[in-house]
Amino acid sequence: MQISTKRTRAMLIGVVCACAGLMGFSIDASAQSANVQKIGFLIPLTGGSGKLGQVLMEGSTVAIDEINATGGAGGKRLVLVPEDSQGLAKQGMDGIRKLIDIDEATFIITGWTAVVMAIAPLAEQSNVYLISASTASPAVRGVSPHFQSTWMFDDETVKLILPYAKSKLKVQKLAVMTVMTDLGTSLRDAVKRDWERLGGTLVGDEAHQQGETNFRPAMIKMLTTNPDAIYLTTSNGKQSAQMVRQARELGYKGIFLSFGAIEDPEMLTIGSKAEGAYYSAPAYDPDSPHPTSRHFVELFKKKYDRVPNVHQANHYDLIHMYKNAADALVKQNKPITGANLRAYFVANMPEYRGASGGYRFNYKDGSVLRSSIVKTIKDGKFLKVADLD
Amino acid sequence: MNYAIHILITVNIFVLLALALDLLVGYAGLMSLAHGAFFGIGAYSTALLTKAGWPALAAQSAGMLLAALLSGLIAIPSMRVRGIYLLIITIAVQIMFSVAAQNWIGLTGGDAGLANIPPYSIFGYALRGVYFLVVCTACSVFWFLLCRRLTTSPFGRLLRALRDDEVGCAALGKNVVAAKMAVFAFSAALAAFSGSLFAHYTAYVDPRSFEIGVSILVLLMVMLGGAGTLTGPILGAIVLSVLPEAFKFLPLPPGAAAASRQLLFGLMLVLVVYFRPQGLIGRRRSQIATHG
Amino acid sequence: MDSLALLFNLFLDGVATGAVYSLIAVGFSLLWWLADIQHLAHGGITLTAGYAIFFVVASLDLPLPLGIVAGLAVAALLGLALEAGVYQPMRLRGSTEMALLTASLGALIVIEYSLTLTFGPESVSIDSGSLRTPLLPDMLRAVDRFAAITVGVTLAVFAGLAALIRYTMLGKAMRAVAENAALAEVVGLRVLRVQRMAALLAAALVTPAAALLLYGNGVTPSDALHVVLTAATIAIIGGRGSIGGALLAGLLVGIVEAVMQWQFSVGWRLLSTFGLLYLLLLWRPQGLFGSKA
C-alpha cells in the first residue's frame, strides 16, 4: 500500500525531522565542558533493585562532594552521571554507549551480572574502566581486564560462612533455596560442594523463579526434612524477607544462612521473624575508629542524617580509588584512559584500606578479598557476631 | 557519531520486527504477542551457532528456520480459535520461551546469558560500526521490498480476505490452513532474522531482552504507525526507537524515567486505537477502495 | 512427614491459592460473557484495589473494613470508567476486536505503571500475623486460619453471585443480554446500562481477592499481566460465562501449580498452567462448562 497523500508523506518527514532535531538539541545541551570530568554510574535506578541503586548512589555522592570541595581529582571537578541500567543487558548497553560517546566518561561504576557481561567487551574496546561493588556472581570472574570488582564473589563467601555454621552454629542438616539466576545456581553449586566437603548432608534443594512471591509450597516441601539451616541464594532483600517470613509462618524454627545482600532494610520489616539469620559481610563497622571510616561516616551523617551502610561505604571508596589514580596519572602527564587506570591500579594498589574496610585485589581475574565478619539480625538491627578468617 | 550509529542500528532492528508483525496483525488480522520469542530464537540461535564456529549467514538461516517451525505452535491452534484465545496462546508461547531461556541453563546459559558473540561477517569480513549499519539498512530495504511484493501479490490478497472474512474464504475453497501457516512462518522467520542482527550487534544475549515487553513494544509500533500499511510500522519503529533516547536527556528524576516511558507507551496504545485506529499513516477501512 | 502427607499439604495450599484465582477469574468471565469484552485491564484493576486497601490500612492506619470499602470504590470507579469511557464508545463505533484488545492492553499498562510511579516497583503486603499459625503444626502445615478464611470468603462470594444471577432482576437482565443482546434491546432492556453494571460487578468481585493477595503474598505492579493471564486462562478452562466453571477451574489451576512442586523443578511448574490451556484449546475450546459461542 503506497503512501497516498502528500499530507501523510509530509507528516512522516516532519515526525522524523522532529525526532532528529530533538535528539540533536539534547545531545548538544549535554556537551562536555573543559574543566569537568564525568564519572559514569551505570546502576539500576528503577525496577526491583532500583531502591538499592539509589542507596548506592548516596555513598558515591558524598565522595564526589568531598573531593570537589578540596580541588577535584586530576585537576578537574567531578560530576557523577547516573544512567539507569535496570540490571538489564540492553539498558546497560544503551547507558554505557551514552556515557562513553556523549559524556566521555572513562571510569564507570557499575554492577549486576547481566549488565557487566554485556558491557565488558565494549568497555575494553573503548578503553574505559569498569569498577563494581555490586556484582557478586562468579560468572564475571575474568570477563575482562577492564573490569574489577570490589565485592567478593559469592562462591568465596560461601567458603567462609559454612565452616562457621558447622562448627559454631552446630548445623548438620542444610537445605538450599536456589533462585534461578546465574548467581543463585553458582551459589547452590558452591554450597553443595563445600558443605559435602565439610562432611555435612544437603537435605533439601528447592528452586524458584526470580520474581516469585509465593514460597509456601517450596517451604512446605523443604520442611519435611527438618533442616537445621536454610541457605538463601537470592540477592533481593524483599524476596529474602518474604521467604523468611513464610518459612516462619509455616513453623520453621531453624536458622537461615546467606551472604551480604541480605543486609537489606526489607529484612527489618518482618520484625522478630528475621532473627536467626546469619551471613558473612565485609568487615565494615560504622563505629570503627579508623580515620577514613570515621571521616566518611561523619560526612554521610551530615548530608543525609542517617548512618551509612556497607554498600554506601563501598561506593564512597570507589570514588576515592579513582581520585588516587587520576591525581597520579595527571602528575605523570598521562591521559586518564581505561588502560592507564588499570595500569595504575595494578602497579600501585594491590591493597586498599577504605571506609568500608580492607581490600586485597586480584587483578588477574577481577576478583577481590575482603576481611569478613559474621553478622546476624537481632532486635531490629544488623549486628556483628564474630570475625572470619 | 558512534551514538548516532547505535541509534540507527537499533531503529533498523525494530523496523524489521515491526514489518514482521504487520504481516500478521495488519494483513492477516491475527494479533500476536509472541514476537519477542521469535526475536529471541533468532538471537540465541546465532549466539550458539556462531560461537560454535558456524558462519554468520548459516547461523542466521538456521535461526529463521527454527522460528518458522516453532511458529507452527501458534499456527495450529489458530485454526480452531481466534481473538483472545489466540492472543493468549501467543502470550503463552512467549512466556514459555522466556521460561526456557531462563531455566535451560545448559543450552542458554540461563540468566548469565551468552557473551562474546562474534560480529556479523560476510565472506570473512567482520562488520562493525558504520559498516554494520550499512548492512542493516540494506537488509531493512530488502525485507521491506519483499514484504511489499508479498502483500500486493495474490497471497497478500488472500491474507486480507482471511482477515475480513475467514469463513467466506474457506467456503470459496481457499486453503486457509496453508495460508495461516505460511504467514506465521514468514513473520516468525523475519523476526528471527532481526534477532540475529541484534545478537551480533550487542555481542551478548540474555533472557531479559526477549520478554513480553518487546512484543508489546513492537505491537505499539505497528498500531501507532498504522497496521496493514508496511510503511506505517516503519514510521512507528522509528518514532518509538528514537523517542526513549530523547527522553534520556530530559531532566527527569532517575526513578521516574523508565516507568513514565512505559506509561506513555500504554497511553499511546489506548489513544491511537481510540481516536485513530488506522494509525498515523493508515487510511480508514471505509475509505479503502475495494481493490486496496 | 512422609510423601503422601506432603502431597496432601501441597494440595490444601493449592486450594487456598486457587480460591483467590477463582475470585479474580469470575469477574473476567462475566464481562466476557456479557459484553464480549476481553478485559485485559482486569489485572490492573485487581492490583489497584489491593493498593487502595494497602494505602488505607498501612499508610493511613485505618481499620480493615474501611480499606475494603476504599478498594471497592476504587475498583468500581476504574472498571466503570474503562467500560463507559473506552470500551462502550469503541464498540458503538464498530471497532474491531483487535482494537478493543489493544485498548485493553494499553489500559493495563497505564494502570501498572501508574501504580509503579505512585508506590514503587516492589511488592507491598500486610502481615497477617497470627492468622498464619498452622492449626496442626508438623502434620498439616498448610492449614491455618488465613487459608480457612480464604476458602470461606470465596465460597460466600460465589454463592452470592450465583444467587444474584439466578434470582434478581439484574441477573435475569444480564442473562438475557448475554443470550442475545439485540433481542434484549428490542424487549426493552437497556443493554448499555446492563453492561455497565456488569463492569461494576466484575470490579467489585476482585476486591476480596485483592485483600487476600495483599495479606498473603503481596501485590506487585508487575504482576498485572500475569494476574489477568491466569484469570483469562481459568475463564477459558472453566468456560465462558460459567460461574461454577470459574470456581472449579481456578481451584484446579491452583492445585496443579502447588502439587507440581512435589516432583517437578521450577521451570516445569510454570509451563503446567499453559500446557493445560494449550491442550484444552486444541481439544475443547469452549472449556469445561461453557457453551459453544
Walkthrough of the structure:
The complex is a heterotrimer of chains A (389), B (292) and C (293). Chain A has 389 residues and is of the alpha/beta class. Helix content of chain A is 44%, strand content 22%. Chain A is built from twelve helices and 15 strands. The longest helix of chain A has 24 residues, at 6-29. Chain A is globular. Chain A starts with 5 loop residues before the first helix and ends with a strand. The mean pLDDT of chain A is 86. In chain B, α2 packs across α10 and α11 packs across α13. Chain B has a two-stranded antiparallel ribbon with strand order 1-4. Chain B has a two-stranded antiparallel sheet with strand order 2-3. Chain B is globular, with a radius of gyration of 19 Å. With 292 residues, chain B is mainly alpha-helical. By secondary structure, chain C is mostly helical. In chain C, strands 1-2 form a two-stranded antiparallel ribbon. In chain C, β1 and β2 form a beta hairpin. The model of chain C has no long low-confidence stretch (mean pLDDT 85). The interface between A and C is medium-sized, with 28 and 36 residues.
Keywords:
heterotrimer, B: 292 residues, mainly alpha, ABC transporter involved in vitamin B12 uptake, BtuC, two-stranded antiparallel ribbon, 13 helices, 3% strand, disordered C terminus, C: 293 residues, 2 strands
